[in-house]
Design a protein that fits this description.
Blueprint lengths: L9 H16 L4 H8 L5 H22 L13 H18 L3 H9 L3 H21 L2 H8 L6 E2 L2 E5 L2 E4 L4 H21 L10 H7 L4 H15 L10 H6 L7 H24 L7 H10 L5 H9 L3 H19 L12 H7 L3 H22 L3 H10 L3 H21 L4
Antiparallel strand pairs: 1-2, 2-3
Helix pairs in contact: 1-5, 1-12, 1-15, 2-4, 3-8, 3-12, 4-7, 4-17, 4-19, 5-6, 5-15, 6-13, 6-17, 13-14, 18-19
Length: 408
């Protein structure tokens, strides 16, 4: 089996690529994820589904050919993963942030991301304290089936043992998995009330007037408070790609999904899965709780997460200054959905960003993973824990947003 382990600093480069790509997607802007929670804009679902459809067969195809990867599907402890996912989804809907998108938002110059950082570290610290109590141990040990994927069990750093046959069987499963995800990416309309996904828009080369208006609205909130750009700039093409006849620009926006997915496959070959929330537990342990059991386990197992988080921030900063021009210089920019429901008070937004990030990180550490470790890296590996976490996150996210953002 061909294997390789890269030095830690390579994580900065990996994080840079993912941070820049996700910033172009618009994930650094909390309004994007709030609209996802409201089920008004499904771009994240479409892009993740497409990215996984591309990358999962690549991962398991190469594995069947003898390429070794640093597999790390999260353990399936059903109760803890499920409850953690529910808490994570609620916090996501309130704050508009994932653990990784907080670092991207800092790179994009978003003031409320500063509040989210402190909420995230406190949420991670809370789980660190709870972990060594009887309640915490019950959550992680009850109904714990270990690290399993669809079709196999993770038994060693580089080895997933198939339940039947050879690794080629898991590759076959990944092809079926990819077809299902591709159908989601193709048929799920991006906008509530629309009829086409971004992928389908490009293939069919047409949009409804309603979809064009939604694209314009999206471009407005993504660039709100950002840097000016000229008519012939890259930023114009990236932010207003719906208005250009250039197939290159239109397809680039869709191909970002593949770039992210394949970058995670590369990362797994080089060193480890892509994860973001472990850094918050590492910081909480270093700053406040160095002697706690959970901190000790994080210190012993930490990989290049702090490096990849730094790279994520730097990638988003680069993209927001030189490509999309969305850098807001830490002005008081309130997400429109939040503003409509709660007004433009900075204190109110501080509470939402801080409190939502607190819940999100508390849930992430309870479930031993977040949108990066479970949804992106976990679902790419077809980890059953990742699929459970994803379902719990979406259920809680949609329910929370329904009540938090409904009109008075």
């Amino acid at each position: 089996m061909i294997t390789y382990t890269a030095p830690m600093w390579v994580g900065i480069l990996i994080g840079f690529i993912i941070g820049a790509a996700a910033e172009i997607w618009g994930i650094a802007n909390p309004e994007t994820l709030i609209r996802l929670a409201k089920w008004e804009d499904r771009l994240f679902v479409i892009c993740i589904a497409l990215g996984l459809a591309i990358s999962a067969p690549v991962l398991y195809g190469l594995y069947a050919l003898g390429i070794g990867f640093h597999f790390s599907p999260k353990p399936l402890y059903v109760i803890g993963v499920g409850i953690g996912g529910l808490i994570f989804g609620s916090g996501l809907a309130i704050s508009g942030y994932f653990p990784g998108s907080i670092w991207m938002a800092l790179g994009e110059g978003r003031r409320d991301a500063i509040y989210a950082v402190f909420g995230a570290i406190l949420g991670a610290a809370t789980w660190t304290v709870l972990y060594q109590t009887p309640v915490g141990q019950w959550l992680v040990n009850t109904l714990n089936f270990g690290s399993v994927v669809i079709g196999g069990t993770h038994v060693d750093k580089f080895i997933i043992r198939p339940w039947y046959g050879t690794p080629a069987v898991i590759f076959g499963i990944s092809l079926v998995y990819a077809v299902g995800l591709f159908l989601v990416a193709y048929y799920l309309p991006r906008y509530k009330g629309g009829v086409r996904s971004c992928l389908r828009e490009n293939i069919e080369k047409r949009s409804t007037p309603y979809e064009v208006e939604k694209h314009k609205e999206t471009a407005m909130f993504l660039t709100d408070g950002g840097l000016p750009y000229s008519e012939n700039s890259i930023a114009k093409k990236l932010n207003e790609y719906y208005a250009t006849e250039s197939n290159v620009t239109r397809w680039f926006m869709v191909s970002v999904a593949g770039i992210v997915g394949l970058t995670v496959v590369l990362e797994m070959f080089l060193h480890q899965i892509f994860g973001e929330s472990t850094t918050d537990s590492w910081l909480a342990g270093m700053l406040f709780l160095p002697t706690f059991k959970y901190s000790q386990s994080v210190f012993a197992g930490i990989g290049w997460e702090p490096f990849s988080d730094i790279g994520t921030l730097m990638g988003a900063l680069f993209a927001s200054v030189f490509l999309t021009r969305r850098f807001t210089s830490f002005r008081n920019i309130i997400p429109p959905s939040w503003s409509i429901r709660f007004g433009n008070s900075q204190i109110t937004r501080f509470l939402g960003s801080f409190g939502g990030a607190y819940l999100m990180l508390f849930g992430a550490r309870m479930a031993d993973g977040c949108a990066s470790g479970h949804i992106l890296s976990g679902d790419l590996q077809m980890a059953i824990s990742g699929l459970e976490f994803t379902a719990a996150v979406f259920a809680a996210m949609l329910i929370t947003a329904h009540y938090v953002y409904r009109k008075r």
